Amino acid sequence: NELRGRGVWRYRDLLPEPNSIVSIGEGATPLIRLRSHGNAYIKFEGTNPTGSFKDRGMTIGVSLASSIGVKGVIVASTGNTAASAAAYSARAGLNCIVVLPKGGVAKGKLGQAILHGASIVDIPGTFDNALEYVLDTVLINGSADHINYYPLNSINPWRLEGQKTIAYEVFEEVGVPDYVFVPVGNGGNIYAIWKGFRELMEHGMIDHVPKMIGVQASGAAPMVRYWNGAGEAKIENPRTIASAIRIGKPVNWFRAYRAVKYSGGAFIEVSDDEIIRAQAMLGKEGIGVEPASAASLAGYLKALGEGLIGPSDKAVLIATGHALKDPDALLMGNANMISISSINELRNLVMGNAIA
Ligand code: F0G
Fold first, then answer.
1. What residue's CA is closest to ligand 1, atom 1?
2. Shortest-distance Cα residue to atom 10 of ligand 1
3. Across 148-171, average pLDDT
4. 2: pLDDT confidence band, cut at 50, 70 and 90?
5. Which residue's alpha carbon is nearest to atom 4 within ligand 1?
6. What percentage of the chain reaches a pLDDT higher than 90?
7. pLDDT in tens, 166-180
8. Which residue's alpha carbon is at the smallest distance from atom 19 of ligand 1?
9. CA of 224 to the centre of ligand 1 (A)
10. For helices 291-305 and 272-284, what crossing angle results, to 10°?
11. For ligand 1, what atom is nearest to the CA of residue 192?
12. Of the candidates 319, 324, 259, 265, which has an alpha carbon nearest to the alpha carbon of residue 295?
């Protein structure tokens, strides 16, 4: 396979070894220095094959599912996992069932699940309910000998193995940053990235890990609640414009907690307004991300503003998914839209007579 040596699979010595690899060219994403904040770098995961970091884990998960010979894979999702599972299953010739919160998935992601031929199951309620449906189904039917549909949510440890390669790529470009900001939903990704850095330390390549900062939207911030000692890492009715991280009961809450705690980091929350402003700010730098992904920049700006970090600290902000995932969010932006009906009007614009 020509893709074996690039991106995620460049690190195959540190990854599980499936019989055959299902790859569409995941990983090797750009690290882009911000013009507005010279010590902040955006790790732009939107350039993955289906437009999110999920592809890093899905190439491993679907390769293994394919190697053990199941009929298909099943995931609950706020959208990106569904899009990724659908594409990699299609590539592998496996069936794919995606279980989605009705009305809670951005259009781009739903479109991808349709395009790649997944069976789409809508359920009432939130992502948390969708995950319950899936776990109850596979735990009852899924004793090892008659499992037909392999569950590929982020409780699946193999997916996290793929996602840890974000740490390896960051390390190769800028060494160990002082901070890594990660939007947190289920808490799998922040743990995976921390694990990647910890392994580099175990291999003697680095002597410390970055402080991991988990960023949540304030209407969906169970980890912040737990971190602040205000109760369990659970809330009912999570609400935020960032549908990807609209999650009230993160299954990987303890992994995420450990990553943040043992790296010396923190969980912080940002408002939907701050998220939208950060998304627009990245847009102005030519970087198109979906709302959930902008949470990492929103969190960085907040941490700077509150003096939690300093302007000379080196920070990597994980931009988890592409702007095109959520076209409705883009269309709510401040458009420079001008309707004209004659060539002369356009000439006037171009001559600089009427453009703001
Ligand atoms: N950013 C985006 C764009 C996501 O899609 C997700 C998770 C996260 C951040 C949070 O990552 O769950 O590992 O803490 N999306 C999942 C999905 C839930 O179904 O696509 P996490």
1. 320
2. 185
3. 93
4. very low
5. 244
6. 89
7. 999 999 999 999 999
8. 77
9. 16
10. 100
11. 13
12. 319
Whether 3 shows a pLDDT value over 90: the answer reads no
Of 190, 253, 282, 320, the residue with max ligand 1 atoms within 8 A of its CB, to mutate for a pocket test, comes to 320
pLDDT at 121 over 90: yes
C-alpha 22 to ligand 1 mean position (Å): 21
Distance 172 CA to ligand 1 centre (A): 24
8 A C-beta contact, residue 279 and residue 329: yes
The answer to whether the CB of 160 falls within 8 A of the CB of 62 is: no
CA distances from 67 to 94, 112, 122, 339 (A): 11, 24, 29, 55
pLDDT-derived band of residue 85, with 50, 70 and 90 as boundaries? very high
Chain segment 267-283, per-residue pLDDT in tens = 999 999 999 999 999 99
Pocket lining for ligand 1, CB < 6 angstroms: 52, 54, 77-81, 154, 183-189, 244-245, 290, 292-293, 320-321
Distance 315 CA to ligand 1 centre (A): 20
**DSSP secondary structure, 270-303, as one string:** E-HHHHHHHHHHHHHTT--B-HHHHHHHHHHHHH
Domains and CATH numbers, the chain: 7-51+162-331 (3.40.50.1100), 54-158 (3.40.50.1100)
- Cβ neighbours around 277 below 10 Å, total: 16
pLDDT value of position 136? 87
Mean pLDDT of 89-117: 98
